[in-house]
Design goal:
The structure holds two protein chains of two kinds. Chain A is mostly helical. Chain A is 70% helix and 6% strand. In chain A, strand 3 (275-282) and strand 4 (287-294) form a beta hairpin. By secondary structure, chain B is mainly alpha-helical. Chain B contains 14 helices and four strands. Chain B has helices spanning 2-37, 44-52, 58-75, 77-86, 88-110, 114-144, 163-187, 190-221, 223-230, 234-238, 240-257, 264-284, 295-298, 302-329, and strands spanning 148-149, 152-153, 287-289, 293-294. The chains are: A mainly alpha, B mainly alpha. At the A-B interface, helix 2, helix 3, helix 13, helix 15 and helix 16 of A face helix 2, helix 3, helix 4, helix 5 and strand 2 of B.
């Protein structure tokens, strides 16, 4: 019983820390790309509003990135503290990938972040833009490695298992890195990160549009510009994301059918399967209660044919089934949010065509309410894919219960409480600062992180007085 | 062929890992030290200035720690999977402290009320202190030895709570504070520079005392360590260390006494860190989890180590060069200056 609760706490702790962490890299990936686009457009067109927006969002980036670094630090040690059996067995494969992530991405991001944040007046415009691009490329490389290793846990390839130690040994790195679910996952996740940021930007712009309207004035050029950019993203990227999600679904059906059965709440494998709009899956009685179903739609969505065969949970032994009640809802919330994003995007296109994009308070209000929509969908999608991998850490090969460290319950309980307290303090602090930043309307001659604080300007005004020759060196 | 690869790859990786850890200690050492020095320096303008000397580079400094974790995981998974469970609580406290201190970099500048300013300043100082202390405890516990059977940690949750490892914690706090102080006396001028020069004398003295104590204490922990000090070829390697420490200590004090010397104290302190680190390394060699697991026993298969090594050969120099570039961009003395006078 105690072993079970230590396992449960270890899982809960991992879910909590990674769930907290995942928000920030996603935010950084999307925001770094947005910043690179803004700076690029500024250099190309010379329109100063782009620079103002760049500086405005740069302040946000500094907070988000820092929180990503520190919460990611935890992840790089948590595999060892709580999942040492997993680390020893899968370490030869996943460890090098994570190390490559740090070397190809983290150092790149951190190395150029200083220049990007505080260097606009220190290095030339071109070099500064290069630094911004490096940071953005770094976030994308990082995402690729982490999703590759995550995908390997879902669809392992290119390994052999050592008889004596039970370790996974690499046989073909190409197959390991480019395992079957990786291409689908990376597209889906990358688009998700862009949508997260698009809706945050839209929400902030929406708030300022509403505020300006209430005050009987026109919102600043910067606000309108960023609203327009965000709505373009919503209109173009959301529909593509639906397609990307659909193809990932087909891939999952091929490699992890039990996950599909669990997230659909289907118990019997059948052709012409209905799609459940609502239901309460019951793992014990092997049924789904209160079903509201649309005939044929399940087969149509999952197999793109009306009489395609859809898997049911009863095809799998009880101990191999993912927990359907959670998956069923996380999946549906993600889909619902995705559909809403598509609708907002389409509506914005129509309003733009009518020339009313900035004069439709209802759209601005919806954008405001939907600002966390991207992140909620991301978290739900992540729950769906990771809980759907259960009860395995390496799908079909290594059980979660065989992956955990020999940790004492008091240790993990202590760490859980400590993480919750510290993360809530940090999260509350971060949110407060972000909201305060957002409350300020972006305006002409926007201050960036460097000029914002006189203390920091000390670092940037140095151009004027050159470093003195160092006396210590001269000795 | 594989025989030799099986021998040399772990050796190369052990050296690379040691290099990464040493780089981490140097780089994050002085920025943790700055946090610790908040204990001494209460003036708000000075504090801001101190933080500004590292604001553009601290993310990169901390990345070496993430790299250490990831590399250990990939190259020595057995060490990763036994050291971390053994050091569960110290690692936990260190990570939480690093989180609090990391976000304080941004949060303390953006705090508006005096209350929240005070809170994040305390988090920055406390976080830096605890992180440094726990790093010392981790090092001490490792040197002292970890109970392992069949590649699984079998000791108790509080094995790390020993006089030796707690003393190592204190030693690291003092060492980092000295690194921070000498960094600041190099990067700042005026009153802050003078304060740091003054503090450095005391810290340098304390650091030398702790170095001496740890050096005497370590060989008494295990017979193997004792043998290292008495047998060849290790004796040849370790014998010059105390002499070199004495020489560098002399250089450090000379640098501190000479008001025209700005960079030298920092460099000398880094040198002292290097000597202590290599001294410990020679002691522990070839064990990665003393006293039972060697680097060869802890290794992942040659396929994994080779795969990572190929990339590391290209990436590490690249990383070092753009890190150096970033330091170069933000070079020179920092001053609160004319900006708000």
């Amino acid at each position: 019983m105690f072993g079970l609760s230590a396992l449960f706490l270890a899982r809960f702790q991992f879910a909590f820390t990674v769930g907290f962490h995942i928000v920030f890299p996603a935010f950084s990936i999307g925001l770094a790309a947005y910043l690179a686009v803004l700076e690029g457009l500024w250099l190309k067109t010379g329109r100063s509003a782009y620079l103002d927006l760049f500086k405005y969002w740069l302040k946000v980036f500094s907070v988000v990135f820092g929180m990503g670094v520190v919460s990611g630090l935890v992840m790089s040690y948590e595999f060892g503290t709580n999942w040492s059996a997993f680390s020893q067995k899968a370490g030869p494969i996943l460890g090098p990938m994570l190390a490559y992530e740090v070397m190809t991405a983290f150092f790149l991001e951190a190395g150029f972040l200083g220049v990007m944040m505080f260097g606009l007046n220190r290095v030339g415009k071109g070099l500064h833009f290069a630094a911004t691009c490096m940071v953005s490329i770094g976030t994308l490389i990082s995402m690729s490695w982490i999703l590759s290793s995550n995908s390997w846990m879902q669809t392992p390839r290119g390994y052999r298992i050592d008889e004596a130690t039970g370790r996974f040994l690499p046989v073909d790195w190409w197959q390991i890195v480019f395992n079957p679910s990786f291409p689908y996952r990376i597209v889906h996740m990358g688009l998700a990160a862009f949508l997260c940021v698009a809706f945050i930007v839209a929400g902030v712009a929406g708030w300022h549009l509403l505020k300006a309207r209430r005050e009987g004035r026109q919102a600043s050029e910067q606000v309108r510009l960023m609203f327009s950019m965000a709505m373009w993203m919503a209109a173009i990227v959301s529909p593509i994301q639906v397609l990307a999600g659909d193809t990932q679904g087909l891939n999952t059906l091929e490699y992890q059918p039990a996950k599909i059965a669990a997230l659909e709440g289907d118990w019997e494998s059948e052709s012409r399967a209905p799609e459940l709009l609502f239901g309460i899956p019951d793992m014990k009685n092997e049924t789904t209660h209160f079903k509201i179903a649309i005939p044929y739609l399940g087969s149509l969505i999952l197999t793109h044919s009306l009489d395609g065969k859809v898997p049911g949970l009863k095809d799998y032994p009880k101990e191999d089934r993912p927990y359907s009640p959670l998956l069923f809802f996380s999946f549906r919330i993600m889909i619902a949010l995705g559909m809403l994003m598509v609708l907002v995007g389409l509506w914005s296109l129509y309003l733009r065509w009518k020339g009313k994009l900035y004069d439709t308070p209802l759209l601005h209000r919806i954008a405001l309410f939907m600002s966390p929509a991207g992140f909620l969908a991301l978290l739900c999608g992540w729950i769906t894919t990771e809980v759907g991998r259960q009860p395995f850490t390496v799908y079909g090969l290594l059980r979660t219960s065989d992956s955990v460290s020999p940790i004492a319950l008091p240790n993990i309980a202590t760490s859980m409480i400590a993480f919750v307290i510290v993360y809530f303090i940090v999260f509350a602090g971060g949110i407060t600062i972000l909201l305060r930043t957002f409350a300020e309307e972006p305006h002409p001659d926007q201050h960036g992180p460097a000029e914002d604080q006189p203390q920091r300007a000390a670092g940037t005004t140095q151009v004027s007085h050159q470093p003195q020759p160092d006396a210590g060196m001269a000795e | 062929m594989t025989e030799t690869a099986g021998f040399w790859l772990p050796v190369v990786w052990a050296l690379l890992a040691a290099t990464a850890i040493f780089l981490y200690i140097c780089l994050d050492g002085f920025d943790l030290g700055i946090g610790i020095l908040f204990l001494k320096e209460k003036d708000a303008d000075h504090r801001n200035l101190m933080v500004n000397t590292v604001a553009p580079v601290w993310d990169g400094n901390e990345t070496w720690m993430i790299f250490g974790g990831a590399a250990l995981y990939g190259v020595f998974p057995v060490a990763y999977g036994t050291i971390l469970p053994a050091l569960y609580l110290p690692v936990l406290f260190m990570l939480l402290a690093l989180i609090l201190r990391g976000v304080s970099f941004e949060f303390r500048f953006k705090a508006e009320s005096p209350m929240s300013k005070f809170f994040w300043d305390t988090a920055f100082c406390g976080g830096s202190f605890v992180a440094a202390f726990m790093q010392g405890v981790i090092l001490g516990t490792l040197v002292q030895g970890i109970k392992v059977e069949n590649n699984v940690f079998v000791g108790s949750s509080f094995d790390w709570f020993s006089p030796f490892s707690l003393f190592c914690g204190l030693a690291v706090v003092i060492g980092y504070a000295l690194l921070g102080a000498t960094w600041l006396l190099w990067r700042c001028e005026g009153e802050l520079h003078d304060t740091m020069r003054r503090i450095s004398f005391g810290l340098a003295g304390l650091m030398l005392v702790t170095i001496a104590l740890v050096s005497v204490w370590t060989p008494m922990l295990h017979t193997t360590y004792m043998q290292h000090w008495l047998a060849m070829p290790q004796l040849a390697l370790v014998a010059p260390v105390p002499v070199a420490v004495a020489v560098l200590a002399g250089v450090l004090f000379l640098g501190l006494r000479n008001p025209r010397s700005h960079l030298l104290p920092f460099v000398a302190t880094l040198g002292l860190f290097f000597l202590c680190f290599s001294g410990l390394g020679i002691n522990v060699w070839p064990y990665i989890v003393p006293p039972t697991i060697t680097i060869w026993q802890a290794s992942s298969p040659p396929e994994s180590q080779t795969f990572l090594l190929v990339g590391t050969m290209f990436l590490l120099p690249l990383i070092l060069s753009y890190t150096a570039y970033s330091y170069y961009v933000f070079r020179g003395k920092m001053s609160a200056g004319h900006h708000y006078h």
